[in-house]
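Two records follow; treat each independently.
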Amino acid sequence: MAKRSGDFILRDRMQITLNAAGETDTLYGRLDLSDFTNAIDKKGLAVKELYIQVRDPMNVSLTSTNTGIWNPAAGLHAVATPGAASIEYKLVATTRAYESLRDVGIGSPDVLYCKEALYTFGSVAAGSGWVNVEVREFPTRDLHPEGYTLVSDLLIGIAIDEHTSSDERWFDGVIELDIMMIAESVSVTQKMLTNLLTQAQDV
């Protein structure tokens, strides 16, 4: 969406540490919007676009020395031949702290953004194989074409699964999430405020 009069851009960066298996259960970072939202003053933030980028600035993948690009397929190695290994992740932006991202989809309440990706490596013989990449992204403009009004902070959630790989490069690795949001300050009515605050309760 083109930037319009009254729109402004918010940016933030979060750091995620994977566990000793190169995975992570559902983790959230909080985007502090207290400078723009205030229930007493009936101030809200209308979100128009939201982008989340996963980065590998510490080169955990051992393939991104110059770029810092997160390459989940790096190091995927099937234990057996023939065999397969995979790594998958889900990213969400939401006002509701779901206990697990297993419960989150495009039909879930209070979800502004959802992205899921699956990288699969298949070994057909010693020294040969293939990689398949599946990415599905559901941005704010698709989930909420009319925009989404925030009256609270925004949660950025991530979960990662790694399957069958014997490579250890992701174990205890650190990656980063960059967030960019295009929004506009708005006033909210008491009825809207009550509904929005009720929806924003954690589950």
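The next record belongs to a different protein.
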Amino acid sequence: MQFRRNLTAFFRACSGKRRLNDAASRAIFIALLALLLSASPTRAATLHYDAYLSGLPIGSAIVEIERTEHAYRVSGTASSQGVAHLFSDWHSDFLAAGRLHNGDPILTDYAYDEREKAKHRVLWLSEGTVRHVKNDQVRPSHPVRTGTDILTAFFIQPDCWADRQLHTGRYSYRVTGRPSRQAAGCHFEVTDSDGDRTRIHVLFGQHEGRRIPIEVRSKGLIRGRITLRPVSEQAAGMLLAERP
């Protein structure tokens, strides 16, 4: 994955330009890198999503979910595609991993590596602290935000939550939901720390025995949607990728 290459390059850059604040930070980073390199994709369910704005393709994402009796791991990559790629070369690799206690997830590691043109941000969470680096400059660390990270919430504990606090590592959101008229559908209102609200509709479904979001639609003036690619198209794409 590009995430591995980006994180390795980032670590070299930090060593040459500005070292991380203390030995503990370096140890956490190395542990996170080891976690990424120890992935077992053969045991993971792979999901392909496509994003659209007013019917035009603007992005895609691949998400891998690995879950055992005692642990879970969600990782993947997302990038701008189609017409959006004419204006932005945005790309992000991401990871959330943790333990399962009586079926409930306990996050231990969370990270993403995000690039767009000259901007590059790496964020990682471990042992209750969030650390990030923007354009090779170490930013102030801060405690983990309240609530559940969005990867764990939507891919390990997907539900129509009446009231839940979610975070992306950097930002927190309050999410309130109610069932929609569509079977397995849910209306969510998402409120950020500034009080701005966004309304979305999420349709849940089953994929390889897992409950996952299969469609997300935004409401309001800007209408966008993210949909799970049909299984037949996913299989065809994987066969093409395996050809020499």
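Discussion point: The first helix runs from residue 2 to 17. How would you locate this feature using only the token line?
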